[in-house]
Amino acid sequence: PLPTAPSPEPGGTPPADPGPRPPLIARPGTVHRVTGERESLEVPLDLTGSLGLVGPRRRLLGLARAVVARLVADHPPAGLEVVVVAPGRAAEWAWAGWLPHTAPGPGRACRRLVAFDREQALARLRESAGREPGGPRTLLVLDGDPGSAEARAAAAELVARGRARGVHVLCLAEAPAATPTSPLERGLASARAAVPALVGCGTTAVLVGEVATTVRLVRADGTVGPAATADAVSAAWAERFARALAPLGGDPQDAEGAAAGGPLPSSVRLLDLLGLPRVTPGVLRERWAGPRAGLPVPLGVGTGGPVVIDPTVLPGPVVVEGPPGSGRSEALCAFAVGLAAVRGPRELSLLLVEAGGGDGLAACAELPQTAHRLRANDPVRMRAFARALRAELKRREDLLGAGGFAEDRPDGGRSGFTLPAPVGEEEGVPLPAMLAPGSGPMPRLVVVVDDSESLWAPAAGDPGRPAAGSMVRILEAVATSGARLGIHLIRAGGPAPAPGALVRLTGSPPGRGELLRPGPVPVPLQVARVTGRIPRTSTLRPTVVPLDWARMGDPPTRRPVRELGNGPTDAALLASAAARAGRTEHAVSSV
Per the database record, which ranges form the FtsK domain (predicted)? Predict the structure, then answer.
């Protein structure tokens, strides 16, 4: 018999799946022994891989509901996810959408793990085929033909080899019940012709008898097991059961909750990623006073949530690539503003270099952490900048020695250091400051360079061409030896980077791309925006939409966000609050 539907407390969370995984056992029926004892008919999916169910439609659905209900009752959502692929059969499987096991995880482009048309079916099958081993196991319910030839091939592959990736298929195929006038073998052959994926199932449960209430197991080698009474539950029972389990997971009508594991948004605010609904000096001072390990910055969002980059742990620079209009300058601004939210001006200084003659980094110029902004169109000022930065590298090398920059010692291992003295001028131009006003003697220093290809390969007639070599040499010195001294490089364009992090943008939409860092798998990415303006409050209000189970397998949609045309940008908001917070921090540290 099936377990009684539980009554969990609202808001409860499923327990973790500790230690070895419990066996995944399907129970399609009960064997009645001549001694009067009853014994469950068990199919160990860990061994057989997949299970086929064959019989008349009405009886087949009752059996399938019972098998799924037993499995989700035995395994928490943390250990088993359920995917339903049933094109054209939304009414018969809508109840499964209430199961917390159908909530989408990272990389799932849907609001619920269901598929009720051909496009949804192909998407769910591709997602299941591409999943990495580990994580929760997947029970994929395949009801009939998935539609296209590609979907059929993917389904057959999952039935035959999905077990190695933790995917177990429950494959349904309609056929007349086996009777003396309609042998079991004939019905099984008919079902396999209609649903080719059924051929690869390690075991198939076939409904037999005049009223199809008896089930027999057919093994892969053709042997037939003993007759058993088929388990079955009604659609109403299944929905009550699923609704009782629903509080163990997220709300199936909550598109935003599921969207974190779905497709990338077309736009995202950096302040939202930073958790700063209100940007005030007090909030920033609290953040600056927090743990000081590295410079972790959420650059954007991926299919699994925020994508964080910490330039202090990378063996090389961070490089942003992309065609014009792809959002390279915006990505650099997001880096700079994100860094300013992590560290105050006493512990972080920024150097902004605009090599292409543009003003893509203008939004960051007002940050209190910005020590200097160089427009690389004046050879004298470019050489002065290169000379000042080289002097800062040498100063740190002399002071830090072989030990290098360290944050795990008191004052970062920099106690007793003094602020650098002015180092002179270049052809009558004073050398620019390398540390922000109010800086400590040895802060982290981040050099942000836009359009760096204009330095490595300056065009003929470029006014900065005579000093491009000096700039390239000092930037290469920062890339190779700066990290050890607490100096880091983030640039857009230029030559391919040494091992570090590469953000490759496509520009459709702006900010869309992928992150490549040491490791085999690129991370899809939508870079956060900082030059956008405050969204209108009307676009942030909840939206009520009808619950249409047939469309729950579609990618989640978001309400378009409209911005205030005359409001301040996010970068300006943070720069203003950071400037006030920096003045207070400097005043306190001076007492």
Answer: 304-524
